[in-house]
C-alpha cells in the first residue's frame, strides 16, 4: 500500500500523473520536440516531462505487435506484464536481500519450480538475459566440473565467446552442417570440455543434436530462443535430450513474452552449482548467487503471465507462431521470386530474393518487417516469428510486390 500520509514529496507518488501516463499510451500525439542538450538546471515537473517524452518514447518506437513486425526475437509484451513492471518499479524490491523482497523471492522460486521440470532441471535463478545466463552456466562448468575448454558450433551466440574470454577458458568452434547444426562428426574428445549446444541458434533457429547432452564433462544448452517450446506438448519433443544437460539458459524476454531484462539459468544439480557460483558478504543474510548483485523482481511479470495464460495459453501462442513460420516458409518455397535457405526449425525463416539483391529487398521494406543474417559470407533475409499479431499473408504480399518492382 502506498500510504500517502507518509509522503509529502509528490514526485514519489501521484495517481493522476500515472493515469496521464497511461492515457498518453493510446494518444497519437506526434509533435516531437527537441530535448535539452545539456542537463537542465531547473526541473520541468513530471507532467511536462510526460508531454515532452511521449512523442519520443512512444511515438518513434518500433511496434513489435504490429501486423508487419516479424524481424527479431523481441516479442510484444502482454499488458499484464506492464502492470507488474509498474508495481515492481514502485516497490524496487531487491532479490539480493530477501528481507526486502519476501514475495518476490517466493515468486522466483515458484516460477522456477514450475518451469525447471520441463527441462529436467532442479531449479536456478533469474538474470538479466541469456548473455549472463550463458556466462553463469559456463562459470559453473568450470568450477564444478573443472572443464578446461568450451566446445560449441560456429553458429553459437557471441555471448559464448564473451563468457570464455571473461572466464579465461579456451574456445573451440566446430563447423555446422547444411542445416546450421553443429557437425557432430567433427567433435574433439570431450573429456575436459564443456559442450555448449544451441536449442535455436540466433541466425537460423537451428537445434543442435541434443542427444549429445551428457557426452561431455558438462553440457550447457543455450536455449535462449527456443527453450519455451518445452512447454508446448506439440513441439516439446524437438528439444528431447535437453533433460540430460547440466545447465540451460532461456531468455524470458524472447519466447516467454516478457519485458526486458528477464532470463533464466537452470541447473540439474542445483546444489553443487549454487555452491560454486555463490559469494558471501558480511552484510548479506544469504550468499549472493550468480553474476549479478542487486536483482529485480523479474519473476513477478512472468508469474502473472503464466497465471493469466496457463501452460495452454502459452503453448497456443507458441504453436501459432511455429505454424505461422511454417506457412511463411511454404509460401517462400512456392514463389519463383524467392529462395528458401532451409525449412524453419524454430520459427526462424532464412531466405533471399532471386532477381534483386537481399540488400535492395531489405531497404525497400518497412523497418521491423525483416532482419538479415550472414551465412557462409552471404547475406540472407531473416524473419523471426515472435509476434502473435503478425500477418504472414500481408508480409509475404509486400515482399513479393517489392521483388517484382
Ligand atoms: C538472444 C540470444 C542470446 C543472448 O540473450 P540475451 O537475452 O540477449 O542476453 C544468447 N543465445 C542465443 C541463441 C540467443 O538467441
**What about the largest sheet?**
7 strands, mixed
Average pLDDT confidence is 95
- CATH homologous superfamily identity of the largest domain: Type I PLP-dependent aspartate aminotransferase-like (Major domain)
So what's the CATH class of the largest domain? Alpha Beta
The small molecules bound here are: pyridoxal-5'-phosphate
Distance between the termini: 60 Å
Tally the structural domains.
Answer: 2
CA-based shape: globular
What do we call the CATH topology of the largest domain? Aspartate Aminotransferase, domain 2
Question: What is the share of helical residues?
Answer: 25-40%
CATH architecture call of the largest domain: 3-Layer(aba) Sandwich
Report low-confidence residues grouped into runs of 5 or more: none
Total DSSP E strands: 13
Strand order of the largest sheet: 1-7-6-5-4-2-3
- SSE succession: HHHHEHEHEEEEHEHEEHEEHEEH
- Percentage of β-strand residues: 15-25%
Contiguous helical run count: 11
Rg, alpha carbons: 23 Å
Structural class: alpha/beta
Family: Belongs to the group II decarboxylase family.
Organism: Undibacterium macrobrachii
Cofactor: pyridoxal 5'-phosphate
Keywords: Lyase, Pyridoxal phosphate
Amino acid at each position: 500500500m502506498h500510504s500517502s500520509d507518509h509522503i509529502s514529496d509528490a514526485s514519489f507518488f501521484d495517481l493522476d500523473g500515472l493515469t496521464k501516463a497511461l492515457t498518453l499510451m493510446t494518444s497519437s500525439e506526434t509533435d516531437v520536440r527537441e530535448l535539452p542538450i545539456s542537463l537542465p538546471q531547473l526541473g520541468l515537473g513530471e507532467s511536462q516531462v510526460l508531454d515532452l517524452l511521449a512523442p519520443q518514447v512512444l511515438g518513434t518506437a518500433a511496434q513489435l505487435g504490429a501486423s508487419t513486425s516479424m524481424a527479431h526475437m523481441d516479442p510484444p509484451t502482454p499488458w499484464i506484464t506492464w502492470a507488474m513492471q509498474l508495481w515492481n518499479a514502485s516497490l524496487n524490491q531487491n532479490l539480493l536481500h530477501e528481507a526486502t523482497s519476501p514475495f518476490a523471492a517466493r515468486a522466483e522460486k515458484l516460477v522456477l519450480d514450475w518451469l525447471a521440470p520441463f527441462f529436467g532441471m532442479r531449479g536456478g535463478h533469474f538474470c538479466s538475459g541469456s548473455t549472463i545466463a550463458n556466462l553463469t552456466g559456463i562459470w559453473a562448468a568450470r568450477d564444478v566440473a573443472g572443464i578446461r575448454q568450451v566446445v560449441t558450433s560456429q553458429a553459437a551466440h557471441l555471448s559464448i565467446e564473451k563468457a570464455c574470454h571473461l572466464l579465461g577458458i579456451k574456445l573451440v568452434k566446430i563447423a555446422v552442417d547444411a542445416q546450421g547444426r553443429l557437425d557432430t562428426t567433427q567433435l574433439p574428445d570431450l573429456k575436459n570440455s564443456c559442450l555448449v549446444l544451441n536449442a535455436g541458434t540466433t541466425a537460423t533457429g537451428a537445434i543442435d543434436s541434443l542427444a549429445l547432452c551428457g557426452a561431455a564433462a558438462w553440457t550447457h544448452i543455450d536455449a535462449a530462443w527456443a527453450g519455451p517450446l518445452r512447454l508446448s506438448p506439440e513441439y516439446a519433443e524437438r528439444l528431447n535430450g535437453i533433460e540430460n544437460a547440466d545447465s540451460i539458459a532461456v531468455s524470458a524476454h524472447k519466447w516467454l513474452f516478457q519485458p526486458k531484462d528477464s532470463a533464466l539459468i537452470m541447473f540439474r544439480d542445483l546444489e553443487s552449482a549454487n555452491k560454486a557460483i555463490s559469494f558471501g558478504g558480511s552484510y548479506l543474510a544469504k550468499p549472493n548467487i550468480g553474476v549479478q548483485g542487486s536483482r529485480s523482481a523479474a519473476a513477478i511479470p512472468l508469474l502473472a503471465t503464466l497465471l493469466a495464460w496457463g501452460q495452454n495459453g502459452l503453448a497456443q501462442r507458441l504453436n501459432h507462431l511455429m505454424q505461422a513460420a511454417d506457412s511463411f516458409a511454404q509460401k517462400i518455397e512456392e514463389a519463383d521470386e524467392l529462395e528458401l535457405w532451409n525449412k524453419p526449425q524454430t520459427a526462424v525463416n532464412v531466405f533471399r530474393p532471386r532477381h534483386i539483391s537481399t540488400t535492395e529487398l531489405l531497404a525497400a521494406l518497412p523497418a521491423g518487417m525483416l532482419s538479415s543474417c550472414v551465412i557462409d559470407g552471404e547475406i540472407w533475409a531473416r524473419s523471426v516469428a515472435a509476434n502473435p499479431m503478425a500477418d504472414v499473408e500481408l508480409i509475404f504480399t509486400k515482399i513479393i510486390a517489392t521483388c517484382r518492382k
